[in-house]
Amino acid sequence: MSTEDSCSEVRGLIPRILQALHAKKVWESVKGAEDVECSLFKDLSKPHIRILTPKNPEEQPVVVKFESKIPCGVKFFKIEPHTVEIHQLLSEHGLSTKLLAFSSGAPAGSGGDEDHSEPNFTVEALGVCYFDLAAAEGNPNYWDTANSASGTGGEMAKLAARLHKKVDPQWFDKYRSKIVELCPFMGDKGPDSPFWGIMRTDALGQARNMAATLKESEKTAGPESLDGSDTQIFLHQKRSYAPTNEDMKRIAALLPKPQGPHASRVVTVHSDLWAANVVKELCSNEARLIDLEGVTVSYAAIELAQFCNERGVSKVYLEELTKGEDPPTEEEIDRFWLEALIAGNVQDVLRYLCWEDQKLEVDSVTRTIAHAERFHACAEKLRTDQDLCAQFLRNKGDDAFSEEAMTSVLGNSS
Questions:
Q1: Whole-number Å distance between alpha carbons of 279 and 101
Q2: What is the pTM of this model?
Q3: What pLDDT is recorded for position 105?
Q4: Coil, strand or helix: which one is 126?
Q5: Burial level of 198, CB count in 10 A (0-12/13-18/19+)?
Q6: In the 8-state DSSP scheme, what is residue 63?
Q7: Which neighbouring-strand residues pair with 38?
Q8: What is the pLDDT of residues 214-226, one digit of tens each?
Q9: Residue 277 CB partners (closer than 8 Å, separation 6+)
Q10: In angstroms, rounded to a whole number, what is the distance separating the alpha carbons of residues 219 and 216?
Q11: Could you give the C-alpha distances from 333 to 90, 153, 261, 393, in angstroms and in order?
């Protein structure tokens, strides 16, 4: 299928989309498909996202996400119930682009979950992305500016603080059991575990497929047909040299746990917060979150992992978080910044081992375990030595916990 085919797909959905919008008293002047123009989303790798623009200039354009028959990469986009639920919740709090309407895809006849008459869709307000791909490719200093406290970094820090304050993490409780079903490893993980931020739909896709295959094999050939080798690999990964469940248990035990009242709070997190996932919403002219498929619950500091290279971002976050209370002290800002940097390295370690987008070598897991041991020791030393911590933060490079940086903290003998 071509990109034109996906525009044809969404055009076929327009009657249902209009019905859903009219029920919410949106686009009431738009009567039919002939009154709407369909255009590609700027990222052509996402055939499941299209922009619909009414010919009536008094109506605002919208973004439609739908379950296209064109794969997004190697998989097909699916609208998960928890994504719709959290979008509604964040939209009500003014944190995400406004969710205008959605459809759950009414089943045809008495068919099961796979028997839908038409694909699911969501409709949300359109926003202008803060991320500029052309500028990023042409400017080696782009990210320093974009992630600064005075740039997009500051906007993301404010959004993160408001998200952490406003959205009670209890919404996620009913979804934990599904994740544990797909990945039993998560059964003993507390709500503050960084693994919850990694257990996104993409990461669990392979686990879901393999779990279904194993279940079918057991059903047809009996449990003795399984030798256990497939169930020992973490998330049933197909990469060579993938970690086992035991490897991941060891690494999980080594990774530093968050410390501090603000950094360690269990909160609702976006879990993929960077400049491409923040837009300025046209209808409100305010910064809003998008791409909510990975929203989950974890500890607060991990939210800033991808954009907190500058101390000022931590300051903005804490000031927004404590608005109406005593402002954060300089020491509190430094402590939180250290925790955000630690969280960034935790996330890097987990993504490397959990997501199958990088090639592993024969000794990759062994080297990661050795890195985690040094990382744990380094984090603990920085937390207990205020002067050393201040020096570390002043001299921090792009990779805060590189082997060179950790040697400067631990010494060559460690």
A1: 19
A2: 0.88
A3: 54
A4: coil
A5: buried
A6: E
A7: 52
A8: 555 555 555 554 4
A9: 270, 289, 290, 291
A10: 5
A11: 27, 16, 12, 11
Give pLDDT < 50 ranges for the chain: 1, 106-116, 225-230
- pLDDT the model gives residue 124: 97
Neighbours of 367 (CB within 10 A): 10
pLDDT of residue 219: 54
Residue 32: both structure tokens together: 């039919």
- 63 - beta bridge partners? 51, 124
Whose tokens are 């990964």? That residue is 237
Q: Which helix (H) or strand (E) holds 268?
A: strand 266-269
Q: What is the pLDDT of residue 218?
A: 52
Instruction: State how far the Cα of 332 lies from the Cα of 329, in Å rounded to an integer.
Output: 5
- In this structure, are residues 353 and 359 in contact, taking their beta carbons and an 8 Å threshold? no
Quote the pLDDT of residue 363. Answer: 96
Residue type at position 208: R
Nearest-angstrom CA–CA distance, 313 and 150: 8
Backbone angles phi, psi at 116, to 5 degrees: -105, 140
| 3-class SS shares of the chain: helix, strand, coil, % to 5 | 50, 10, 35
> Which tokens belong to 238?
């197909």
Per-residue pLDDT at 227: 46
Task: Tell the residue number behind the tokens 């699911």, with chain if given.
Answer: 120
**Contact criterion met (CB below 8 Å) for 207 and 183:** yes
Q: How many helices (H) and strands (E) does the chain have?
A: 15, 10
* Structure confidence at residue 208 (pLDDT): 56
Structure tokens at 133: 């791909």
Residue type, 19: Q
Nearest to 310 by CA among 154, 188, 184: 154
Rounded CA separation 273/287 (Å): 13
Q: How far apart are CA 161 and CA 322, in angstroms?
A: 9
- Return the pLDDT at 320: 98
Main-chain phi, psi angles of 273, to 5 degrees: -85, 110
Instruction: Quote the pLDDT of residue 28.
Output: 95
